[in-house]
Design goal:
The chain has 282 residues and is α/β, with parallel strands linked by helices. 38% of the residues lie in helices and 23% in strands. The strands form 2 sheets. Strands 1, 2, 3, 4, 5, 6, 7, 8 and 9 form a 9-stranded mixed beta sheet that branches. A two-stranded antiparallel ribbon has the order 10-11. The radius of gyration is 19 Å and the shape is globular.
Length: 282
């Protein structure tokens, strides 16, 4: 898209990629490309970045920004925000590489952008592992929430700027929670549009049963568990939330212990993350 076509009423979309499944990325692109005025793909030096570039080249209003190394999700999200500002867009949409949005998502979102107290608009998240299950009954068309994952969120650029953007030190996990909590601390609201769902996938979930109860393990690599533990300690401590951080850490530890392969290596990374998180806040 030519920059002259972009106005302050335009919406910039962005997708962060890192070694994506090209098939899922294509679904993601197809679902959103005609809903936004400008779309950028920020790639964190994927092994298949040439394939991503080839896919993106077939869309006339999509820009591909390939980074020279993996700078993390927060860094890439901030680049999307900067692209929105550079193109005079007041709002930007963030998507994960494997998320698939509904075709009328933006049309629904824009109904609520005139409220200056709203810093971010988000959908209901439908995990693919639960797709076959009956959808929860919608009580309210819209509601205010405390937290939202970044995928599928429409963010006000002035709100992003006011809170200082996404915290790049976090790299990946709890980036969304930190941003949401920062919005709240700066008197912005997060509005969820319950009529819109976003198909999403977290890790490589596997279903397990233990003592008559079903649960899902994430099957993340060791480095991911490090960031989960470290950032859980840091984010919830800094923002002084009423969440039981010990319980969050314990539940994840038990799931690793009961369900994951190579559990001792994973637990080693997990405990290192807890230690580094405590060192940061003390």
């Amino acid at each position: 898209m030519e920059e002259s076509q972009i106005t302050s009423n335009s919406i910039c979309g962005g997708i962060v990629t890192y070694n994506p499944d090209i098939r899922l990325l294509k679904f993601c692109l197809e679902a959103i490309v005609n809903q936004v005025d400008y779309l950028c793909i920020i790639d964190n030096n994927s092994n298949n970045k040439n394939e991503i570039g080839c896919l993106v080249s077939s869309y006339h209003k999509v820009v591909f920004i390939s980074l020279d190394k993996n700078y993390g999700v927060a860094y890439a999200l901030n680049l999307i925000a900067k692209e929105a500002i550079r193109n005079n867009c007041l709002w930007f949409l963030t998507l994960d590489q494997d998320s698939e949005c509904e075709e009328h998502m933006i049309d629904e979102y824009v109904k609520y952008i005139s409220d200056d107290t709203v810093g971010m608009i988000c959908p209901r998240i439908l995990l693919r592992i639960h797709k076959s299950e009956v959808k929860k009954q919608i009580a309210n068309v819209i509601e205010y929430v405390d937290l939202a994952i970044t995928s599928g969120c429409l963010v006000r650029t002035s709100a992003w700027d006011r809170v200082g953007g996404f915290w790049q030190y976090l790299f990946i996990d709890r980036v969304d929670d930190d941003f949401c909590l920062s919005l709240s601390e700066n008197n912005y609201k997060i509005l969820r549009v319950n009529t819109i769902t976003l198909e999403h996938e977290i890790g490589r979930p596997k279903k397990h049963r233990f003592m008559g109860h079903s649960y899902y393990s994430d099957s993340y690599p060791p480095l991911r568990y490090y960031y989960i533990a470290r950032n859980t300690v840091i984010v919830y401590s800094i923002h002084k939330t009423n969440l039981n951080v010990f319980r969050l850490l314990l539940v994840r530890f038990v799931k690793i212990l009961l369900s994951e392969n190579n559990r001792f290596k994973l637990m080693s990374s997990y405990f290192k993350g807890i230690k580094d998180g405590l060192c940061y806040i003390i």
